[in-house]
Amino acid sequence: MLKMIANLLKILNSEADPFQISVALGFSMITGFLPLFTPLNLVILLLVFLLRVNISSYLLGSAFFAGVAWFLDPLFHRIGLFVLTAGALEGLWTAFYNTVIGRLQRFNNSVVMGSFVFSLIFFVPLVLIMNVAIRRYRQNILVWVKKSRIMQMITASKLYSLYEKLS
Amino acid sequence: MKKWIRWWGLIAFVVVVALLTIFWLFFVDRIVRSVAERTGTAIVGAEVDVAGARLGLAPFGLTLSGIQVTDPKNPSFNSVEIGRIACSLDGLNLLRRKVVIQEMSAEGLRFGTTRRKPGFVAAPEEKKPAEKKPSSFALPSFEMPDVKKILATETFGSVKLIDDAKADVEKRREDWQKRVKELPSKASLDAYRARIDKLKASSKSSLRDLAGAAGDAKKITDDINRDLDQVKKSRAALNTDLASAKNLVAKAEQGPLDDVRRIRDKYSISPAGLQNISQALFGDKITSWLDTGLLWYGRISPLLSGSSDKKGNIKVSKPVRGKGVDVKFPERAPLPDFLIRTVKASLQPEAGAFSGVIKNITPDQDVINAPLTFKFDGSGMKDVRAIMLSGALDHIQPARINDTINIQASGYRANDMVLSGSNELPVSLQDGLMDIEVKGLRGPTGLKATLVTAFKSVRINTGKQEGGGMILASLRNALSKVTDFSLTADITGEPGNYDVKISSDLDRVFKDAVGRIVQEQSSKLEKELKTAVQAKTGEKLKDLKASLGGLNSLGGNIDNVQNQLNALLQEAAKKAGGKAKLPF
Questions:
Q1: ipTM of the complex
Q2: Is the pLDDT of residue B137 over 50?
Q3: What span, in angstroms and rounded, lies between the C-alpha atoms of A75 and A88?
Q4: Cβ contacts (< 8 Å) between B329 and chain A: which residues?
Q5: Is B5 in Cβ contact with A109 (below 8 Å)?
Q6: Cβ neighbourhood burial of B235 (10 Å; 0-12, 13-18, 19+)
Q7: How far is CA B44 from the centre of its chain?
Q8: Confidence band of B133 (pLDDT split at 50, 70, 90)
Q9: What is the pairing mode between strands B402-413 and B417-420?
Q10: What is the pLDDT of residue B130?
Q11: Ramachandran sector of residue B405 (left: φ over 0; alpha: ψ -120 to 50; beta: rest)
Q12: In the sheet where B326-328 sits, what is the strand order?
């Protein structure tokens, strides 16, 4: 059992390059902000599996951004309503509204549209910022974390030693 | 490319999606059941329980079983319990997030069933409608009024009226007495007579004497005429005053009778009061039925309103579940987001046959351009011989709502039905049959409804048989003999603020039963009041009439003076024309 969990952790923590983690966090923002069971999230999931990005970061990041979304929903609603009711885009939205994918994705909902627009706008900046932040973290803070009591307890555990053996 | 793609991830993705699908298939029934319960509770405002749900994939359809809808007014009971709901779903439209059900069947409907445990009520009970008008629903007092108490508390306007009239007439009499003294007195009249006699005795032997006599005669007649004018004017003025005084006296004489009538009408039961007994007896019961109907109408009506906000050409609506708003763009093939074309419903078989059809259930009636209609028929049921219920909720144009309902029920069994909870006269139907007809309309101008009920073979219970006096005893006796009667209620206004006007042929029963007693009571009261008022005002009226008589008698005095002046005038004219003796 422990070996299975260790293997799983190995898989999840592969692709540990800062850029791979950053891209995974970018995808997790989209997943976290949007409703879970939508075609777009299915595409994001496929990209996460297909591209070499860090899966555990994606999973943790999705949970984190889902929590943040609860606070940002009013902002998403205002952005979404503005975008959906923009006269210049009415033709586009009308065409999209009349497709199955468009209806399944619920793009006509103000919060969904607002969160999607927000995620798109902040995807690239988030990836770049997280990339820099991870590199800085590894250079300056990681050593201190490794020396902390909690980390020492984790590294002393059986599960961690098995994980170390496999990786 | 190899650096960026992990091809085994594709397999992992397929495996994950497959696992999720299996998980969904495994738990979808529970998810659907939970969604149905939450959505139903949100709509009804009270707990909705679903015993089981099954989502079928081939054919694509949904079956719900054991649905219980808590009665918001009485959470220990269900408003309705449905044994089974089954429907087929349009898969393609479902992908477009449109729930379109061509046909749904609802079987095993039951009403008012007991719950295992009280259901949760989400919203507090609707505010009571605007305060009912207690005077319309209050029974008139049947107590015999105490005359002594009435005399002690009531004021009699006639006493003051008589006193004021007497003061007025007295003043006039005094004024006239003074004026009469200013008229020519006996001494003046004697003086005239003396002048006339002197004129008669004077010599008329010469022309000069004749001329002198003529001049004297003219002077006398002028003086008498002047006095006569004054007397005539006085007489005319006195006539006017007398007429006015007589008018005052007539009013004063009427005053006590008006007092008696006013007090009698205030304290005794009038025929108008008897005619309102139906309103007082049945008003609360009918209002309670109406409130229940309007409660459910109030819950259903907003669901048919659809989207009402518009931004330019675009409509927005609040999703039933979820956040934000859904912006609705024009569709190539417009369909409502939720539509049930036909619902076929039927009652539990052992309860008789009651079935019907509801058509076009959707909050977007403007999209399909058709109102919600319903028609139910029942026969051979436990509590009613036959029932027909039909109507339409037309919200195609939200600003011009046109909702109608027609109910016809025959042979509705009324057992222990409380019609009036009044302490003085509680009325309940021990048993009997009712034929009920209801026609209701709610339109842009408001609510208008008529309820006509014919009661047949009824046995009326009026509570304890002793006490309350003769009138209540007569009413109870009359009601106990009633076996058939009818009742009509007209309702107007708005759902939150309506008026109920009730009439019944029981009003004639009440009038016949107690009319004579009420009349006797009223006459007795009137007689006693007359005696009492007479005691207060009799002497005063006598004095008043005496004062009027005194004023009238002054007219006689004036007439007497006038007659004497007329006689003197005639005499003066005669004596002025006496025999003249010529000189030769």
A1: 0.78
A2: no
A3: 22
A4: 90, 93-94, 97-98, 108
A5: no
A6: middle
A7: 33
A8: very low
A9: unpaired
A10: 47
A11: beta
A12: B309-311, B314-317, B326-328
